[in-house]
Each structure stands twice: as C-alpha cells, then as structure tokens.
Design brief:
mainly alpha, 4 helices
C-alpha cells in the first residue's frame, strides 16, 4: 500500500485577503505599477471609509474584498510576481 504524501492545506479566504492587502501596499510603492491602478485601490479604500454612498452592507463587503483583488490582478504580472516572491 503506497503512502500518500501530505497535502498542503489551501489558505482560507481571510488569510488570502491579508496577503493580498500586503501585496497591494508593496505594489503601491512600485513605480512600475500605473497610476490609474493606484487610484482604483484608493477608491476602494475610500469606499470602506465612507460606506454609506450606496445603502446596504453587501456592497461594502464586495468592494472591500474585490478592490484589492482587482488591483493585484490588473497590475503588471512581472511586478506582482516579484513582490509575491519577496513576501514569501
């Protein structure tokens, strides 16, 4: 009977979100990331600070979770890769 190798447990949503936030801050300081993407990130933060622009909690949760994800996805891939490697 062959032994199965231990599988690495995938990170949970919260852990992945925290990594994305850390990566976002690193990307904000990188001059290779276009300015308009940085504005997108700050608009998401602004939405969190002033959430009552549109009533309801679900839109706030969506923007808070989706904003950093989109920022990382739209940033130059080689820059994201470099910062991911630095974060470990």
């Amino acid at each position: 009977m062959a032994k199965s190798s231990p599988q690495k447990q995938s990170p949970g949503f919260l852990e992945e979100w925290v990594k994305t936030i850390k990566l976002s801050f690193n990307l904000l300081g990188d001059k290779r990331v276009p300015w308009y993407l940085k504005v997108l990130f700050f608009l998401g933060v602004l939405w969190i600070v002033f959430p009552d622009l549109i009533p309801g909690p679900l839109d706030d949760l969506g923007v808070g979770a989706l904003g950093p994800y989109l920022f990382v996805e739209l940033a130059p891939h080689e820059v994201v890769k470099e910062h991911r490697e630095k974060l470990g």
